[in-house]
């Protein structure tokens, strides 16, 4: 009986010691895993700033430099000059826009109350091509209605020339920019084939740089043309709107002069 109790006591001590050892091993493994996770997190945190994405301006600048200063500089010059012309025309056309309905009403009231001189004074105090056309027509109103009509038509052509001034330069830059890009592409491809002919074998790494330059010049040329084309279409639409106002106002002025002569 004592021997049985001794065997049971030894078995219990053995199981207890085994559990204690397993617990220590598990705790050690847990601590090791936690330390590994912490180390990995620190490393990822240190590497995170290096993986920040580049901004659009920085990427655009790098691609522009890679495209080469030769053709890329000329394409950029076309873009700058085209934007300068477009902005100048937009400012001029916005200043040339007037409230034609109000102007016609003021001229009609001035004709009824103060005659031609009063109407001319209203036109002198109003900016824009419509007011200038009105003034030229009123200035010839003393001769005849036909003379006033001829003066309106002639001066309308002068004002249209002023509205369309420098627009041809914008169309030139729109056409030249992609052509320069294509020329850069052709030159880049020629350089790539020259390297292939000199080395004697086709290697992607050998011609990759020249092909990249060729494609970048085309891309920037097309981007320049697209930007300038948008401004050009806006300017043409603005000119058409002002010309329509000039034509309608000219007809209204002749009608007012005919009524005033009666």
Could you please describe the fold and organization of this structure?
The protein is an all-alpha fold. Helix content is 88%, strand content 0%. Helix 7 (167-199) runs antiparallel to helix 8 (204-261). The chain is rod-shaped, with a radius of gyration of 41 Å.
SSE order and pairing:
Blueprint: H1 2-47, H2 56-66, H3 69-96, H4 100-124, H5 129-139, H6 145-163, H7 167-199, H8 204-261
Helix pairs in contact: 3-7, 3-8, 4-5, 4-8, 5-6, 5-8, 6-8, 7-8
Tell me the distance between the termini.
148 Å
Average the pLDDT over all residues and give the rounded result: 74
Name the poorly predicted regions.
Answer: 1-31, 40-52
Q: Whole-number radius of gyration?
A: 41 Å
Number of helices: 8
Strand proportion, as a percent range, falls in: under 5%
Binned, the helix content reads over 70%
Structural class: mainly alpha
Number of strands: 0
For the sheet with most strands, the description reads: none
Element pattern in H and E: HHHHHHHH
Principal-axes geometry comes out as rod-shaped
